[in-house]
Amino acid sequence: MKFSILIANYNNGKYFKECYDSIMAQEYRDWEAVILDDASTDDSVIVIKNIIGSDNRFRFFENAGNSGVGITKSKLIELADGDICGFVDPDDAITPTAISSSIKNFRKQDVVLTYSRFMSCNDNLQPVSPFVTRQVRNNDHYFFNYPIQIAHFVCFRKKVYRNTEKMNTAMKIAEDQDLYLKMYEKGKVKFINEINYLYRLHSGGFRRMTISRSPTNILQK
Fold first, then answer.
1. pLDDT truncated to tens, each residue of the chain (221 aa)?
2. Is 131 buried (19+), middle (13-18) or exposed (0-12) by CB count in 10 A?
3. Which string of DSSP letters, residue by residue, matches 108-141?
4. Which SUPFAM superfamilies match (predicted)?
5. For the chain, which domains are there?
6. Parallel, antiparallel, or unpaired: how do β-strands 188-200 and 93-94 relate?
7. Beta-carbon neighbour count of residue 100 at 10 Å?
8. Which of 27, 136, 139, 220 has the most CB atoms at less than 10 Å from its CB?
9. Taking each helix axis from N to C terminus, what angle separates 16-24 and 44-52, rounded to the nearest 10 degrees?
């Protein structure tokens, strides 16, 4: 079961080395990393290409012009060759067992999407506080009455994604949550009670989230 790590980059080349190191440290070995740069204005392209070198597990692409997060992430999914896809921001990192713990759940045929806990980190990727989440109720007609709890590290079956309306490329924010809800309609969503994602808080980024003082609240910028 091949896993596609999808990385949408915009001006985050200076942080990519830690993301790269976390990918290389994965316990699960059958993966590829697909990187799509959205016309960065810094030296991201040169920096990232130098880091990945000639490793053919990394596939690097560039948008001809700045297209925005929705279009870029949609393109990444289409470029992926893996059975399972998961987004990782270039300024963040995943823990060594992040992919393997997800794959274990996808071996159960009724699971279409997994997500886990994540750790909020400072600019140097040092832990600040864990984000509190829980298992969503599957097959629940009242799902929208509950706070949305699906957050990093989110992974999903590409073949199931093809049977949805796919990512809404017109959305400027919350395009990922829209996708996750479409996947929710297709099968079971599994919460992995492990911290599998390190989320860097800083002023830049392709897209960031603002976490309030209460760890149960999260607001998309």
1. 999 999 999 999 999 999 999 999 999 999 999 999 999 999 999 999 999 999 999 999 999 999 988 899 999 999 999 999 999 999 999 999 999 999 999 998 789 999 999 999 999 999 998 887 878 877 776 665 555 667 789 999 999 999 988 877 776 666 777 788 888 888 899 999 999 999 999 876 444 443 332 333 333 32
2. buried
3. STTEEEEEEEEEEE-TTS-EEEEPP--PPPTT-T
4. Nucleotide-diphospho-sugar transferases
5. 3-220 (3.90.550.10)
6. antiparallel
7. 15
8. 136
9. 20
Give me 127's structure tokens.
């832990």
Single-letter residue type at 94: I
Q: What is the pTM of this model?
A: 0.86
Q: Indicate the SS3 state at residue 189.
A: strand
Hey, what amino acid is at 82? G
The three-state secondary structure class of 65 is coil
